[in-house]
Amino acid sequence: MTSSTENKKNVIAEIERYRTKIRKNLLSKLLEKRNLMEKEGKYFYEGKWLDRAKIVAFQEAAKRRDRIIFLEISALFLFIIATILGLLKGLTAFLLPM
């Protein structure tokens, strides 16, 4: 009974050592790739390796898109308010007696 428990502990310890070894190996490879790409002037941004000019262009495009979305939401909000006020005015003028 103790040998099977001891065997399980040994297997778990071996898995832990293997996992730690793989993790360190993967980390070193990723750091090496990052250093190589940074030497080439590329940086990891939004899931891609891009140079600074493309990153700035991407951020400016996103900023423009955000402004457009803000204006669309504001216009929709004003349209909804105007519609509600128009319906209230119409209901009070035509349906409610004075």
Give a concise summary:
The protein is mainly alpha-helical. It is built from 2 helices and 2 strands, in the order H-E-E-H. The protein is elongated, with a radius of gyration of 31 Å.
Topology overview:
Blueprint: H1 2-39, E1 42-45, E2 48-51, H2 52-94
Antiparallel strand pairs: 1-2
Overview of the structural elements:
83% of the residues lie in helices and 8% in strands. By secondary structure, the protein is mainly α. The chain has two domains: 40 residues; 53 residues. A two-stranded antiparallel sheet has the order 1-2. Strand 1 and strand 2 form a beta hairpin. The radius of gyration is 31 Å and the shape is elongated. 0% of the residues are buried. The model has no long low-confidence stretch (mean pLDDT 92).
Distance between the termini: 93 Å
Please state the structural category: mainly alpha
Mean pLDDT across residues: 92
The value of Rg in angstroms is 31 Å
Strand percentage lies at 5-15%
Main sheet? 2 strands, antiparallel
Say how many strands there are: 2
What gross morphology would you assign? elongated
The structural domain count equals 2
Tell me the helix content. over 70%
Per DSSP, the total helix count is 2
String of helices and strands: HEEH
Q: Strand order, biggest sheet?
A: 1-2
Report the uncertain regions. none
